[in-house]
Design a protein that fits this description.
The structure holds 2 protein chains of 2 kinds. Chain A is α/β, with parallel strands linked by helices. Chain A is about 25% helix and about 20% strand. Chain A has 13 helices and 18 strands. In chain A, the strands form 4 sheets. In chain A, strands 2-15-14-18-16-17 form a 6-stranded mixed β-sheet. Chain A has a 5-stranded parallel β-sheet with strand order 1-12-11-10-13, with helices on both faces. The longest helix of chain A is centred in the C-terminal third of the chain and has 19 residues. Chain B folds into 2 domains: about 55 residues, Electron transport complex subunit B, putative Fe-S cluster (3-methyladenine DNA Glycosylase II, Chain A, domain 3), CATH 1.10.15.40; about 170 residues, 2-Layer Sandwich (Alpha-Beta Plaits). Chain B is elongated. The chains are: A alpha/beta, B alpha+beta. At the A-B interface, strand 8, strand 17 and helix 13 of A face helix 5 of B.
């Protein structure tokens, strides 16, 4: 039976088409990263409650040993990525939070074992994994959404009995420019992605599975289709080939493009019976359930015009960003180091910032790739309105933030912004629209959290 | 001749004039009637209270403006001390109007910035070129090394309605001649380094740092940071050291020999005087 290929039945409004620059790293096979001397493992790598450390200064830890946990439901435990000795538990740099409590591990250089990639067992029988067991394994492995948001996966996999739960979409769009880690994963380890998707669908109780891939990744489409055929699940998994457009991989845009359903403003996908998981998360689910391996490593793309040897590296969580950049060496001076893609990533300043579970790429940009300090006045051309995939009016929202008109900002749905950055990208006046809107969202979130 | 023309005009204008008079008279009667029957009885004290208040509508009391505060304070006299721009003087006059004992503190409330790092004291990792707002800068690590101290981009300056807080060499500095204690600056500061303190004396001792980093990191990042050594807490019990940071417990604030000793012994000199 042929693998059903769903060729973009639907689409989403707006969006942009930036140069994808994936040629820098897309042909680099996944390699083990450098062995760091010290790992900084933050206790908060997810949305939800911060973990409590379970280890003390001076204690020896094994690879994969639980080092921090939390009883709260919306939380994910943290494991030691490599064997070593706990140096301290202290405030350390964090790519998103700035500073965060972290366990610092001095890596034992003698017992360094790179995470090997075991083959799928020949007698893999998915029927023997019960939904409850899958969710438990996923929680114990400390899985979080690896696409960037970092929502604990076991919470996502827990179906709400009062809501429909019929469609699982595995997101392999990787629409951000430069990033290629998900692409390499789909090309090199497609079986794990497919098995992970099947396990996730089982845990969540959905019948239909889509693996969504943009049409600029024919090799990945081929590789995933072959894997689906190899396991013999052509009837259940459909490869959805979507047109290349940013932000195709945005959760709300993806659901619109694959199923034609619209996630209500302010709502979440499970409300309309859809669950979206990143391909890296799906692969990690397979690791966690089939081999009971905790999430200790992840694939990170090190790329950008300033990098001499772009690479896709499988690195232990907690590796300092600076060490990975040194490993790939720089061609010329870096003007910006961005964690994540250039559209939505966060510029960091401290090279000691660690890789966390949600870091998918380090993009080192040169001077010529920046557009700074040339903001002009808004000429009301409306390009940002055309580009906004959520149908908002970015220029108006930015103005409300500049003038502290918070009521007006809320009336114009500032919180519906997905921060994709399309508006800033198209603005001919170079106004940092997404930056202003993000600022406004941060302000309003702070105001709300203070009231409660 | 002229006179005759004038009289003729007057005769022509007479009906119009009478009509206007009639309309005016009717409306006057209607207004009088409305005034008598539709009158809303208002406590005269509301107006009296409103006159006493500073008419700044700053919202420090927690109400939308001075008039809604006036109504609220009449209904519940325990709210008397809430008007911080008015201070103790207004509180006393309100108490007199409502004939109750003044419930509010007799000391004014003022803003205190828990940071003393000017541009030259701080460490920067990179150049921040983003939006010039503390809220935006706080979301990025590139703005400055210290994640707890003043960012110096002036959200508090823009929030202040009394021109009482200014950026002096990268540090928010309160002008105590003008500060009314409304708390608008404390509400916008994304790092929460501005505290509203009851000034029992005209000058108050302040630990001008908010860094919860350990001493080594604080020293590496800032020349004016609290390293949490705890020397001050040994001298006087108004200092409480937790999370690598010394704080003054203002509910037990006093100024004596012990606090002077603590100030003198502080190795990084973060215990300073604020006020005027």
């Amino acid at each position: 039976m042929e693998v059903a290929i769903n060729k973009g039945r639907f689409s989403f409004r707006g969006g942009v088409h930036p140069a994808d620059r994936k040629e820098l790293a897309q042909d680099q096979a996944i390699l083990p990263g450098p062995i760091p001397s010290q790992l900084v493992v933050p206790l908060s790598q997810h949305i939800g409650q911060v973990c409590r450390p379970l280890v003390k200064k001076g204690q020896l830890v094994q690879q994969g040993e639980l080092i921090a946990d939390q009883d709260a439901y919306v939380s994910a435990p943290v494991h030691a990525p490599m064997a070593g000795k706990v140096k301290e538990v202290s405030l350390q740099p964090h790519p998103v939070l700035g500073r965060c409590m972290a366990v610092v591990i001095e890596v034992d250089q003698n017992s360094v074992g790179q995470a090997d990639q075991p083959q799928l067992p020949a007698d893999l029988d998915l029927a023997k994994y019960q939904p409850e067991k899958i969710r438990q394994d996923v929680r114990n492995a400390g899985l979080v959404g690896m696409g960037g948001a970092g929502f604990p996966t076991h919470v996502k996999l827990d179906p709400n009995p009062n809501r429909p739960h019929d469609t699982l979409i595995v997101n392999g769009c990787e629409c951000e420019p430069y990033i290629t880690c998900d692409y390499r994963l789909m090309v090199e380890r497609p079986l794990k992605v497919v098995v992970g998707a099947l396990l996730a669908a089982k845990a969540w109780g959905s019948r239909q599975i889509y693996i969504a891939i943009e049409d600029n990744k024919p090799k990945a489409i081929q590789s995933i289709s072959n894997a689906i055929r190899a396991i013999g699940v052509e009837g259940r998994i459909e490869v959805a080939v979507l047109p290349t457009r940013y932000p195709q991989g945005g959760e709300r845009q993806l659901i619109r493009a694959v199923t034609g359903r619209i996630v209500p403003t302010g709502g979440i996908p499970p409300m309309i019976g859809v669950l979206v998981l990143n391909v890296a998360t799906a692969s990690a689910i397979a690791d966690a359930v089939v081999w009971s391996r905790p999430l200790t490593h992840r694939i990170v793309t090190v790329t950008g015009s300033a990098v001499a040897r772009p690479a896709n590296l499988e690195v232990p969580i907690g590796t300092p960003v600076g060490q990975l950049i040194d490993h790939c060496s720089l061609k010329h001076a870096a003007a910006r180091v961005v964690l994540g893609g250039p559209m939505m990533g966060i510029a960091i300043a401290d090279p000691n910032t660690p890789i966390i579970k949600t870091t998918n790429a380090i993009v080192v940009l040169g001077d010529h790739e920046l557009r700074m300090g040339q903001q002009g006045p808004c000429i009301r051309c409306g390009r940002c309105v055309d580009a906004c995939p959520e149908g908002l009016n970015p220029s108006l929202l930015a103005r409300t933030v500049q003038q502290y008109a918070w009521d007006l900002a809320k009336d114009n749905f500032i919180t519906a912004c997905i921060e994709c950055g399309c508006c800033s990208y198209v603005c001919p006046a170079g106004i940092e629209l997404a930056g202003y809107i993000k600022t406004g969202k941060a302000f309003l979130a702070r105001q709300t959290s203070k009231k409660t | 001749m002229i006179c005759a023309t004038f009289i003729g005009d007057l005769q022509a204008a007479l009906p119009a004039g009478l009509l206007l008079l009639g309309v005016g008279g009717t409306l006057a009667v209607a207004l009088l009637f409305a005034h008598q029957t539709l009158r809303v009885e208002q406590d005269p004290r509301v107006e009296a209270i409103y006159q006493v208040l500073p008419h700044l509508d700053c919202g420090a009391c927690g109400y939308a403006g001075c008039s809604s505060y006036a109504k609220a304070v009449l209904a519940d006299p325990t709210l008397i001390g809430r008007c911080s721009p008015g201070g103790p003087a207004v509180a006393q006059r309100l108490a007199a109007i409502l004939s109750v004992e003044s419930a509010g503190s007799s000391h004014p409330i003022r803003a205190v910035v828990h940071c003393n790092a000017h541009t030259m004291d701080k460490t920067y990792y990179g150049n921040y070129e983003g939006i010039a707002s503390c809220i935006a800068g706080n979301t990025l690590t590139s703005a400055q090394a210290c994640r707890f101290g003043c960012l110096g981009m002036g959200d508090c300056v823009r929030a202040c309605r009394f021109d009482a807080i200014h950026m002096v060499d990268g540090l928010a500095t309160v002008d105590y001649q003008r500060c009314t204690g409304c708390g608008a600056c404390a509400k916008v500061c994304p790092r929460g380094i501005i505290e509203m303190v009851t000034f029992q004396q005209s000058m108050m001792m302040v630990v001008a740092c908010n860094s919860k980093e350990d001493g080594r990191t604080t020293r590496a990042m800032c020349k004016a940071g609290c390293i949490g050594c705890g020397l001050c807490a040994k001298q006087s019990d108004i200092f409480v050291v937790s999370d690598n940071l010394s704080k003054i417990d203002y509910s037990h604030y006093r100024h004596d020999e012990g606090t002077d000793q603590a100030m003198a012994k502080c190795p990084t000199k973060v215990i300073i005087w604020r006020g005027c």
